[in-house]
Design goal:
With about 150 residues, this protein is mostly helical. Helix content is about 55%, strand content about 0%. The chain contains 7 helices and no strands.
Length: about 150
């Protein structure tokens, strides 16, 4: 019985100690002047859909849930955000070259058509991030406008 108690104590001690290893948090407070929606007249519905479904991992403004402060979950979330921003960062959109913007738009369309984004595990925990068929259609219309160069420059 003492061995079992010692193991539990060690596990609790290690769990407590790892709480002090804090990953970087993606907490830009103000909207970026390089953001895809900065100084545009994009439909507010589209802005809301993109922000709810994409911005936590693909911008500089992540809204962290309560459990994102608990290690090792905090480490995993930090890595997901880092990976997401590496692939696409809406907060730095206007810093991308025209060619890169075009390529990113093609990728966004592809992942939406393949239902790869937002990832299902994320949607399970963030119901507001779910993209209904109607929202998807609205996003695809907007992306088509972007691809044709009718909205942003």
């Amino acid at each position: 019985m003492k061995k079992k108690q010692l193991i539990i104590l060690i596990v609790l001690l290690v769990f407590g100690l790892i709480q002090f290893i804090r990953p970087y948090r993606n907490l830009q407070t103000n909207p970026s002047r390089y953001d895809i929606f900065h100084k545009t007249e994009t439909n507010p519905e589209v802005v809301m859909i993109v922000q709810q479904a994409c911005y936590d991992c693909h911008s500089n403004r992540t809204a962290y849930p309560w459990y994102a402060s608990i290690a090792p979950v905090s480490w995993m979330i930090s890595q997901h955000v880092k990976d997401g921003k590496k692939h696409l960062n809406f907060s730095e959109w206007t810093l991308y070259s025209s060619e890169k913007q075009s390529h990113k738009l093609d990728e966004i369309v592809e992942v939406l058509q393949e239902n790869e984004m937002p990832p299902q595990p994320y949607v399970w925990l963030h119901k507001e991030a779910a993209i209904s068929p109607a929202k998807k259609e609205r996003l695809m219309e907007w992306l088509n406008q972007l691809q044709q160069g009718n909205v942003l420059k």
